[in-house]
Amino acid sequence: MLEAFSTGYYFGRLYVQPYSGDRPVLQTDQHEQVGEQVYDDDGDRLPLVVKLGNRYLRVHREASMPTDTLAVPADAADDLDLRAPSEPEDVLVARGDHARRLLDMGV
Question: 51: which of 5, 27, 88, 92 fits an S-S bond (Cβ 3.0–4.6 Å)?
């Protein structure tokens, strides 16, 4: 799902859909797989930090989500200028050290 992009990020493409929840989520197994790649499987499992457009999202797990889909709260989706739901969006996923810094800054 992800490919190296820079020293701070991996690049990926996900379908992004609004939903009625209160925080961004990714399907549980996929979240785990991405977490292993992003955090080099060091056991220090932090939330994923995804950059979508100009916004950083702290992404959590949700078993009911379809694979390859990032679900964002409806109010956040309104601010993201998303493409058609049938087209995947470019996303950047922060690598371990960069993700930790972003989380420390309150993302």
Answer: 92
Domain parsing of the chain, residue ranges = 3-104
Cα dihedral 59, 65, 67, 68, rounded to 10, equals -50
99: helix, coil or strand?
helix
Count other Cβ atoms within 10 Å, centred on residue 40: 12
Low-confidence stretches of the chain (pLDDT < 70) are: 41-45, 83-85
Hunting for tokens 């993302």 — which residue is that?
107
What is the per-residue pLDDT for 84? 66
pLDDT reported for residue 46: 79
Determine what percent of the chain falls in helix, strand and coil, rounding each to the nearest 5.
20, 35, 40
Architecture of the domain spanning 3-104? Beta Barrel (2.40)
Burial status of residue 44 (CB atoms within 10 A of its CB: 0-12, 13-18, 19 or more): exposed
